[in-house]
Amino acid sequence: MKKGVENVADTQAKNDIQTQNKLKFHVFQDERFVDLNLYQYGWERTEPLHAYGPYARNHYLFHYVISGRGVLLANGQYYPVEAGHGFLVVPGQTTTYQADEKDPWEYTWIEFDGLRASESLGLAGISGSQPIYTPSSREAGLLLQQQMLYIVNHPQNSPTRQIGHAFLFLAQLVESSAARREQSQRRMRDFYMKEALSFIEQNFQRDISIEEIAAFCGLNRSYFGKVFRDTMGESPQAFLLHYRMARAAQLLKESSLSIAAIGAMVSYDNQLHFSRAFKAVYGVPPRTYRQTHFVQADRSSRTDR
């Protein structure tokens, strides 16, 4: 009987080793990071014709192809993707991707999101409508591969260290992309956006208007809205809402402040209006979100109303 148990254990160990040789998959467990956050990351040596989808993601998902070839189906188009290139899936976009029958993919991937994600991808020149990443050189692509595999191969790192390497991944993605927008063409837009983001970060607690942000940047409201949307991928109103709700979510998870107090801290003096805005972004009211995510402070000390 003991020998049989040992045989089963040996077989399981061999299967585990084979799985490790074909697939690594990790889920990032910390959601405290607002500017950039990881959700899952991994590496896989796929089987011939291995496919995933059709499926829509909630966050950005980037694959870098180490070897092999395959095809991405997005926007009703087929995009061939081979070794040394990559492809992006954006939130809400339904895609399917499939490995080649004779030369299947080996790839690494990172799923991420955050307030800086859209801006960085825009600088890299890749998007839902232009999902294929092409490196400016083979060496630049290999550096991106190294950054991604470091994250995949070090899941034991602290969350802060992993997020630090996620920023390095984004920086290399921007710097290595052949579609990178020239800084000389974006200098003024980048300046305006830095000014706008700085103003929002310092004033989101009060009832600021889009006209006020535009005036601070020295632009009229209409042109400011266009520049902001082109750069950030969403309107100033949507960004301001998401920024405030992200700050509120962080406070709900990490403090014992009342929901009314947290709402006031992100410019909502009316708790009902705050709850509606929070639910519109996160799908649940603040109280439910706190019950699910609250992890640090003593629950018995909360004073929700």
Amino- and carboxy-terminal Cα gap: 61 Å
Write the element-wise H/E pattern from the N-terminal end onward. HEEEEEEEEEHEHHHHHHHHH
Gyration radius (Cα, Å) is 22 Å
How many beta-strand segments?
10
Backbone structural class: alpha+beta
Could you describe the 3D structure shown?
The chain is α+β, with helices and mostly antiparallel strands. It has helices spanning 2-22, 117-124, 138-153, 159-176, 183-203, 210-217, 221-232, 236-254, 259-265, 271-282, 286-293, and strands spanning 23-27, 37-45, 51-56, 60-67, 69-74, 77-82, 86-89, 94-99, 106-113, 132-133. The chain is built from eleven helices and ten strands. The chain has a six-stranded antiparallel beta sheet with strand order 1-2-9-4-7-10. A four-stranded antiparallel beta sheet has the order 3-8-5-6, with no helix packed on it. A hairpin with a 2-residue loop joins β5 and β6 (77-82). The radius of gyration is 22 Å and the shape is globular.
What are its keywords?
alpha+beta; 305 residues; 6-stranded antiparallel β-sheet; 4-stranded antiparallel β-sheet; 10 strands; disordered N terminus; 49% helix; disordered C terminus
Describe, in short, the structure shown.
The chain is of the alpha+beta class and 305 residues long. It has helices at 2-22, 117-124, 138-153, 159-176, 183-203, 210-217, 221-232, 236-254, 259-265, 271-282, 286-293, and strands at residues 23-27, 37-45, 51-56, 60-67, 69-74, 77-82, 86-89, 94-99, 106-113, 132-133. It is 49% helix and 20% strand.
